[in-house]
Amino acid sequence: MRRLAVLASGRGSNLQAIVDAIDAGTLDAKIVGVFSDRLNARALERVPPDLRWSRDAKAYAQRADFDDELADAIDTVQPDWIVCAGYLRMLGETFVARFRGRLLNIHPSLLPAYRGLKTHARAIADGVAEHGASVHFVSPELDAGAVVAQARVPVLEGDTPDVLAERVLAVEHPLLVAVVRLAVEGRIAEAGTTVLLDGQPLLDPLSVESADSACLAPPTK
User: Is pLDDT of 163 > 60?
Assistant: First the structure.
């Protein structure tokens, strides 16, 4: 059984999706720690107290000091994979290098579009027809690592950022669970800027077809 460390900054709905999949027996993994850069992140409440680690990242004089303490804490639980599930703080180059190839992140856009924050508002402002979410390997550059899989939703007339965010969140959960399942089954690996799936280069991201499906499909052309 693979060991997962989860990083989260907010309410932890993606973390809950992982917990639910483990409890349902559809994800053969164990959460060995939940780590947050915010002392009162609601995500921490979704796991027992002995699995919680949190610090106020803003209290550290240097960004690297927090990253080093976080990395040391993660090392103590010996995870096979580290999943950033709504973790809103950029990870430094040294941290990424320490865990490179075992770091996954879910991001609310169809990368490479809309790296960074306020993705939903930016998508609406640009008038795009589709938006969505991506799960990618973490690299030192913000939201620039190799993309494993994506889920798409329409952008509808009259959408607000909050309305669009809820539509994206509905597909984020099955998307993240599906990719974590590939990870714990040993089916994906990072090779530079490329994802290997079953040892073969993945030329385009896989896709989750709907919020009701945790099955990944080949990309459609």
Answer: yes
